[in-house]
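A reminder before we start the practical. When you read a complex entry, don't treat the lines as separate problems. The point of joint prediction is that each chain is placed relative to the others, so the output describes one connected object in space. Small molecules and nucleic acid strands, if listed, are placed in the same frame. In the example below there are two entries. Take a minute to note the order of the lines before looking further.
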Amino acid sequence: MFEKRIFIDRTAEKLTFLMASLSCILLVIIAWGLLKRSFPIMEEKSLADLLLTSSWKPLKGNFGFLPFIMGSLYVTAVAMMIAVPFSILTSIYLSEYAGRRIKNAAEPVIDLLAGIPSVVYGVWGILTVVPFVKYLAGLFGVFTTGYSVLSAGIVLAIMIFPIIINLSTEIFQSIPLELRNASLSLGATKWQTVKFVLIPKAMPGIIAAIVLGLSRAFGETMAVLMVAGNVAQTPGSLFDPAYPLPALIANNYGEMLSIPLYDSALLFAAFILLGIVLVFNIISKIILLRITRNTQ
Amino acid sequence: MDLRKTEENIFKGLMIASTLAIALCTGLILVTIFVKGFSALSIDMITQTPKGGFYLGKEGGILNAIAGSLYLASGATFLSFCMSMPVVVYMNVYAKRNSGFVSLVRFFLDIMSGIPSIVYGAFGFSIMLLLGLRASLLLGIISVAILIFPLMCRAIDEIFKMIPDELGDVSYSLGATKFETGFKVLVRQAMPGISTAILLSFGRAIGDAATVLFTAGFTDSLPGSLLRPIATLPLAVFFQLGTPVAEVKERAYASALILTIIVLAISIIARFLCRKFTVHIIK
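Here is the predicted structure of the whole assembly.
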């Protein structure tokens, strides 16, 4: 009986170690799986040809990803411009100014925002944001369907609020109370304390939070697919439609097997997306690891 | 002196305004979805499968998608849990303290949890091509399980990290092996956290559309076999919204409402369970 228990323990140690190693390798497997599928297109075209030309005609064998990459960049940039000021101000308010009751009320609201499925964001975007943008464009004398860079940016901004707010509130709260007290006792106002003491101290963490939000916005698919308009050209203004990379992949899954190289091109797009998001995530994670190491 | 006060007030005002704006957005989303969804919601929607001409505005419901989503999310959550527990127990019980390998695993898991779901979908799809399979419930379950695995694993890991060392020490001093300590003692202490993590992962799994788009396919019939395609709620919303028929669009709103209600219910239950279980925990 005794030996059986030891045997189970030893076996479990090896198996759990194996599972833990596998979870590291999983990422490599995913990257490799996508890369392998994108070899056919990379053999046909040069990397510059794929990434820097704008002609997208799969039937003729033209696969220029530039409009999609630009679409992703524009949409993400707009989302960040909206999301960053709102989220940072909110997280300062929640960690420095708000009382317990407001904090307790804010927590479920932010969790809720984080939990809403992206397809529901898409439906809401079509119902509310798209008509709003159409109306807004009308004020500037621009005609648009409303399905545009700006609509996608607004919806994305709301989707990444919770990520930036949660992380940066945590960063602000990890700053020792003594720093605040020292500043306040020297006669600084609360805002001065925030501006000159807390924000510089929290800066790396805030940047990590923003980068994490950025990578989430960059890879978001369904909501963007539903409101961005999906026209394969580099958008010229906020009210132009865009066709971001994830939307391209999701929109063409049905026909990709019937056109030569199409599936390879789309999985190549997924590989690029993975690469970009990984770079963002690794940067953000390394900054955060540094912070925890310094505070310990 | 006055200038400082003014600056203080301006920024405080801005902060309150942005907090309110975010709360308002949340409210607006919920109100829009509820108001639009309710008018199209009917008993038929949740008790019937699509009949002929459903996508042209004829009779039927989305029971196929509701059932499909529940099957898929349960399967994926279960599979992901089975993958997560050994990893968590290894990291917190077997591995040496401050082991570099454990930090590496955590690093990889954290990075993986940021990968967009469309990439997991595309990966599932490339596996499909490799093995010559067709979209099916099983493939959907596997892809979504991989999608939620890093999140669930790290969530449970954080719970295990918070368990006081003494509990493990007591268990060892009574002669228990690490296996028994990890899977029989510590698990109980971590139960509330684990159930919250499971529910939240379930919520994530049921709301995900980009992964299942590639791997689970879509069908009008109820899920029958692991090897056949299934319908899922997010895709039902998406496809119904894509039709030009006004009535079908209305139904898309109702489907979105059903999805939102399921996700909301899960997060409320998760909060409730978390509070209820905490009572039994040894502090």
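Discuss with your neighbour: Chain A has a mean pLDDT of 89. What might explain this?
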